[in-house]
Each structure stands twice: as C-alpha cells, then as structure tokens.
Amino acid sequence: MIKFIKVNKVTAAALFILPVFLFLSVYFFKLAGGPYYLNYYDPGYVYLVNSINVMQFENVGHIDHPGTSLQIFGAVILKILLFGKSEAQILDAVFSNPESYLNILNKSLVLINCVALLALGIFAYRKTKNLIFSLLIQLSVFISFEIYYGLVIFSPENFLILSIILISGTLVYYVYDDNSDKHMLALAITLGIVCGFGSVSKLNFVPMCLLPLLLLKGFRNKLIFVLASAITFVIFFLPAISNIGRFLKWSGNLTVNNGIHGKTALSGFDLALYLENIVTIFSKDIFFATIFALIIIVLIYDLIVWRKDRSVQANLIHQKLRRVLWAVTITMAFQVMIVAKNYLPYAQYYIIPALMLTITGLAFLIPFMIGSMNVNRKSICNMVYLSTFVLVLVFSVYEFTSSHKEASDFRDEALKINSLVKEINSTSVLVIPSVGTANEDCTLALCMMYGYSGKRTPMFQKEFSKRTSSKIFHNFWENKLFAISDSIDIGKEISGKDKIVMQLMPNTSADMAVKCLKDDYDVTVTDKKLLMQNGNMETVYEFYLKQ
Q1: All residues at 6 or more sequence positions from 231 whose CB lies less than 8 Å from its CB, including other chains
Q2: 510, 420, 332: which is closest to 340 by C-alpha?
Q3: Which of 124, 192, 250, 337 is close enough to 229 for a disulfide, judged by CB 3.0 to 4.6 Å?
Q4: If residue 3 lies in a helix (H) or strand (E), which one and from where to where?
Q5: Phi first, then psi: what are they for 502, rounded to 5°?
C-alpha cells in the first residue's frame, strides 16, 4: 500500500486537483439544480424509501434497474446516521426531511467516486510514470452533462461511474504492467466483480461486459469472468430476490420490446427509427462522436498500413494497446446499438459508461498512434498528451459552464410553476399534480406507484399522508389518476367540484387529461384555462367541470 501511494509531493498535489474539482463541481451543479423535488427526484426518492426497507431487512419493491447495490449502500448510510432509532423514529426522521438525507447519501457517493478517481490517477502514474497521461485519464468524469447529472442524484449512475473508473484502472494495469499476461486469472476475477456490480446497479451497464470478453485470453479466463460477474450480481440482488419473477418479466420486456422500458411490442420495430436513434445519440454528444470516429479511423489505418511494420509489431505494449482499443471501440458501439432500441430523447444518460470510455480510449489511442510512427516517440507523445489534456480540459470547463447554466435555468423555471401550485394549494381548489412535475408532494407519491415501496407501502402511505396537501396524483406514463391511500375514492373527491387544477408534464396535453377524467370517472370538462406554461414546458391547467 505504501509503495502504491509513494509519489513525490508535486505529483501527488497534481493528481489531487481533479478529484477535488470533481467534488466541488458536483456541489455547485447541485446548487444550480436546486432541491431534488424540482423535477429530478426520479428515482432518488424511490431508492431512499427502499433503502429503509433494506435497513429493516425487508425485500425491496423497486427492482427495475435493479439498483439493489444502491439500496444496500443507502441502508448502510442510513443505519449509521440513525443508529439506535426505532422504526417509527426512522420513518419520522426520513420523511420529515427527505432532501437532507438524499443530499448526504449523494455526497457519500460522490466522495467515493472522488477517492476512486484519485486512486486511478496515482495507479496510472505508478504504472506509466507519465503525469499528463494520468491526469488525462482522470478527465473521464468531466466531459458530459449526462455524467454530471448522474453524479448529483441518488441513483445507480454513481456506481456505473465508479465501475468505469475501476475498469480504466484495470486497463492501465493490463497495458503497462509487464506481468499482466501472467495474471489473466486475477484480471478475470477483478473484471467479473466490477462488471457484476455495475450490471446489478443498472442493466445498461451489461454491454460493458463485452469488453473483458474481448480482452481476456483463453476460454477458461472468459468463463471465470462470467462466473464472477454472475455471482456478484446474485449477491447484490438478494434484497430483491422475492421479486425475481417481476424483475425477469421487466428485463425480458426491455430485451425483446421497443420503447423506453420496453413498453412497445417488438412487432412494431422500425428500422428507420432505430438508425435515427443511433444518429441522435452521436449527434447529441459531439465529443463522444468525434473521439469514437477518430479511434475507428486509426484502427482501420492500422489494419491497412501499420501492421506491416515488423519493428512495431514486436512491441508488446503496442500489441496490448491495439487489443484494448478494439475492445473499447466495439464495446462503445455495442452499448449505443443496445440503447438505441429503447431510446427516447431524454434517455442519453443511458450511455454514461460509453461516454466515460471515450477518454479512456483517447488516452490509449495517443501512445498507439505515436508508437506506430517513425518519430522520437517519447517527446512527441508527451507533447500530444499535453495538448490533448489542455483541449479536453478546456472542453470540460465549457461543458460544466453550459451544464451549470442549463441546470440553473431549469431550476428557475421549475420554481415558477412550483410557487403557483403552492399558492393554489392554499385555497380550496383541488390540485392534481402529475408525478414527475416540480412538486414536493409528487416525490413521495412516486414511491407509492407500481408497488415501488414493497410490502411496507401502507406504513409509508400513512407517513406520507401526514405531510402532503395533495391526495390524488396523475400517472403520466399511463394517463391515469391514483390516490395515495386505498381509502380515498377519486370519483367522490372530484364529483361536485366546479373546477379542478392539474399540473401536467411536458409530454401530457390538456386533452389527455380531459380524456382521463371522462373515460375513468365520467367527468365532463366544459372549459379549460392555461394558468402557466414554464420554460421546462410544464403546464398548469384549470378545468371547469359539468355539474
């Protein structure tokens, strides 16, 4: 351990800079976004509630991702924070101030990622003795708004980021340790644990499992990798084991169907739309598309020209770099192809693992290119490293600045509509907010949908009812209304009202709400009035009802 961290003070200080900057940038990004209840509480609140379930050794109700690794983590942190508290005291503490606990949980995750990023930098420097390379590979977490978004919420994306950092470190070891070929078994087990952990955190990490399968030598090592991944997945999946049937059905739909979460039958597969989705994924992140294209061009050129140079082929590191670049490129392409099948414009964060591999691939591409040329390799390589680092750093600063402004603007617009709804709630008018809108009541209402709270739902409903002014909510995914308690009769609550107010998501029209009221509750809307539409395209409508 001492040998691992033993670097000179200047180098250590340099490698500390980016992890510290990561923590601070996430902190300021969260300030820009405001409280979680301003539109980005999905799925953080659901994971918070299920962390309480795990803390009490109850099976979880939310298994979609499946995300059980995050729920275990949340349970451990909550247990530390609420040690010695009774179950009633735990529920009262968490439900009274959920934002505070979410902030603590999120900062804990960010701190873990910062430590991992520091360890990656130190490890890379120990193996390469190249400070700029080590700093460049640390930049992988700074290049996209999607990564920032994943870091500021209590969600599995934090563990996907951690897993890619660990994979990057493993790739550095594979390329730059002279004995790595002799330690394929250890690499297989290590990568298996990391990939199993990443996959159980969120299924969109599964395509990353292709990378070790391409990289590891020998059928035996590939098999060990698969077994290590499977065992790790099962261990962290245990809190949801009683819902394994539901999970298999959900993941099965995701695999064989189209649309977000696999809600559209595959019989409706549209090849043109699929190809359009692939183009959209690349066009929404130009940096990702540019580096991906550059790696492919270099690899094709290598196949045609550089492989003829025998002096280059004798270089073991060069051969390893080629193998890593092919594995990284194919894996990135595979994830894009998988995500494109179920893609919607807001689902760009599903390619976070591939986005982070962009920098890892770039860091290995530079020595591969320079090593294939008849030049003073060391000096040219360092110049290219430095130039690339500066360019990526400038891009990262730009990305943070634009992302910070986008988050601030989103927050300000959310606050406008949130304030209006609070004002209406203070009157006698019935307000029905749609889950997903900027509304504190919707945060915990989300946890009551689809059995997300598990068997303890009645207990959570009771706690929730003490703290909400809204009793009825709109589920925009299905265009249905639901109540937070089975004792609430939605029809009776609406009947006899002269008017009601609904806060709607951007993808929910007033006509859809009118149809829901008519079809499900035989309530006729005679007129409607738009009270507000904010910059986030949320709307607040006043509906006048026929008596």
Answers
A1: 192, 196
A2: 332
A3: 192
A4: helix 2-5
A5: -125, 135
Residue pair 192/225 in contact by the 8 Å Cβ criterion: yes
Q: How far apart are the first and last CA of the chain?
A: 76
Residue with tokens 């006048």: 544
- Asked if the model's pLDDT at residue 373 lies above 50, the reply is yes
Per-residue DSSP letter, 470: -
d(CA 309, CA 205): 37
| Listed residue (61, 44, 55) closest to 448, CA to CA | 61
Tokens 């009601």 sit at which residue? 500
Maximum alpha-carbon separation in the chain: 88
Q: Where are the beta strands (DSSP E) in 285-359?
A: none
Three-class DSSP category at 399 = helix
The whole-model pTM stands at: 0.93
Structure tokens at 459: 């207990």
Render 82-93 in DSSP notation, one character per residue: TTT--HHHHHHH
What confidence tens digit (pLDDT) does each residue in 111-148 have? 999 999 999 999 999 999 999 999 999 999 999 989 99
In terms of Cβ atoms closer than 10 Å to its own Cβ (0-12, 13-18, 19+), residue 314 is exposed
Percent of the residues in the chain that have a pLDDT greater than 90, as a whole number: 69
pLDDT of residue 372: 66
Q: Is 473 helix (H, G, I), strand (E, B) or coil?
A: strand
Place of tokens 């006043």: 542
CA distances from 471 to 401, 423, 484, 485 (A): 39, 17, 6, 8
